[in-house]
Amino acid sequence: MGIKACSEELHLTNATPTLTEVVNLVSLGEPTYTRTSNDSTNQTDGCIERLTPALLQISAFPFTYEYTPGDADDVLVRELMTSAAIRAFEIRVDDGTGTGGQMKVTGTGWLSSLDPSGGEVGPGGLRRSTAEFQVTGVTTVSAVP
Fold first, then answer.
1. How far apart are CA 90 and CA 11, in angstroms?
2. pLDDT at 25 over 50
3. CB atoms within 10 A of CB 42
4. Parallel, antiparallel, or unpaired for β 60-67 and 25-28?
5. Could you tell me the CA-to-CA distances from 23 to 40, 52, 57, 84, 129 in Å, in that order?
6. What does the alpha-carbon distance between residue 126 and residue 103 come to, in Å, rounded to a whole number?
7. Could you tell me the CATH superfamily of domain 9-31+59-143?
8. CB 111 within 8 Å of CB 142
9. What are the φ/ψ torsions at residue 39 (nearest 5 degrees)?
10. Is the pTM of this model over 0.85?
11. How high is the pLDDT of residue 2?
12. Are 84 and 110 in contact (CB under 8 A)?
């Protein structure tokens, strides 16, 4: 087996509303947030650019995991890809305080890409796969109690 993610967790849902941890998570990227702007500049206003905040765009986040074909992680991720359904997710990462605390990001989205071609990385047919989860709607960031 490869090196696992130390302080990161990814939880996804399948056809049930229960969050299930991707146990053999290797790496996880957090979603990024970008706010677009509206331009209300006009020529009679001294030609000074006037921008106001507009839509908030939330990126997809990548993750890499290891699996044995047919194990729980493999079934969970492949079901997400084939269902094309919007599902809940939860990411847990170190809160950056140095105390071992965690923060979590929750929201919904869908699996937008899956590349199971990482090849065999261990005995017994263990493989590595990369995927990307596209966030849609509002996310919530909070401390993990």
1. 5
2. yes
3. 10
4. antiparallel
5. 49, 43, 29, 22, 13
6. 30
7. Hcp1-like (2.30.110.20)
8. no
9. -105, 115
10. no
11. 44
12. yes
Residues whose CB is less than 8 angstroms from the CB of residue 34 and which lie 6 or more positions away in sequence, other chains included: 56, 57, 59
Token duo for residue 47 = 């030609």
Buried b (16+ CB within 10 A) or exposed e, 85-114: eebebbbbbeeeeeeeebebbbbbbbbeeb
132 and 62 in contact (C-beta within 8 Å)?
A: yes
Amino acid (1-letter code) at residue 28 = L
Nearest to 138 by CA among 110, 112, 108, 111: 108
pLDDT in tens, 65-75: 999 889 999 99
Please give the pLDDT value at position 30.
Answer: 80
> Which backbone phi and psi does 112 adopt, to 5 degrees?
-95, -20
Q: Per-residue pLDDT tens for 86-112?
A: 999 999 988 878 888 888 989 999 999
- Report the pLDDT value the prediction gives residue 18, as an integer from 0 to 100: 93
Please identify which residue in the block is written with the tokens 């890809």: 81
pLDDT at 100: 80
pLDDT at 137: 84
